[in-house]
Amino acid sequence: MARVLITGSSDGLGLMAGRLLVDQGHSVTLHARNTRRAGDARAALPGADEIFVGDLLSLDGIRSVAGQANAADRFDAVIHNAGIGYREPRRVETADGLSHLFTVNVLAPYLLTALITPPQRLVYLSSGMAHGGDVDLSDPQWTNRRWNGSQAYSDSKLFDILLAFGVARRWPKVLSNSVEPGWVPTKMGGAGAPDDLELAPVTQAWLAVGDDTATVTGRHFYHRQERSVPHDVHDPALQDRFLAYCADLTGTRIPDAR
Question: Of residues 110, 157, 187, 222, which has the active-site annotation?
């Protein structure tokens, strides 16, 4: 039995992955942004062991979730599932003065990775839209560009792959991979999404606990098959610049390998 934490899991793909893992006999901790959504998650998946509460829209909220995780027993795997979609009509700024979308999609998994006692496995939710992303670090916050929600989302999901690969290189004893679940009919994907919803949580659960993925790291998957990614994310220098950028924004760096 593995202990797995899933962020952004009060509904959608995170909850589906949690249900799949509970059904397989694993111990699952869910995460919700507030107590109301935590109650919804408890009702939807009573077999979950615990539910952490914290809003990933703020750096303090992210740190609170990390503190709850470190106060619990060490997790075997963390699935970084929380995310905001591509339909935001304008750039929204958080209380920390950062991009709303970048904070939830990129800084939350970065800071949680940096603060939570490293598990054996890390899984980062990306998207097929990452293949149209740009990892140019000149303006990741979209402060100097005209807002394009679709492009900002695509960029953030490519940054998630860059994060997964950078952590895999920094922490060789931790299995760190990324996943695109497919364009599926969730709240984010929309009712007309054509991909198979039942398959959407399978790959992240497989990477988190699967016996046949016990040595897999620094790779990107779609429906349990490895998928190629833009060449830039394999660049160690770019990975290091990205991690340093996130460290500057959060005041917290990814620790050295343990």
Answer: 157
Q: How far is CA 25 from CA 2, 31, 48, 132, in A?
A: 8, 19, 11, 37
Buried b (16+ CB within 10 A) or exposed e, 37-54: bbebbeebbeebebbbbb
Residue 209: phi and psi, rounded to 5, are -135, -10
pTM over 0.90: yes
How many CB atoms sit inside 10 A of residue 200's CB? 25
Kindly tell me if the per-residue pLDDT of 183 is higher than 70: no
If one counts every other C-beta atom within 10 angstroms of the C-beta of residue 170, the result is 18
The residue that leads in pLDDT, 191 or 84, is 84
| Cβ atoms < 10 Å from Cβ of 23 | 11
Mean pLDDT computed over 240-254: 98
Question: How many whole angstroms separate alpha carbon 61 and alpha carbon 52?
Answer: 11
153 a catalytic residue: yes
Fill in the amino acid letter for 9.
Answer: S
User: Among 124, 153, 187, 222, which one carries the catalytic annotation?
Assistant: 153
Q: What is the C-alpha separation between 251 and 68, in angstroms, rounded? A: 20
What is the DSSP pairing of strand 27-32 with strand 50-53?
parallel
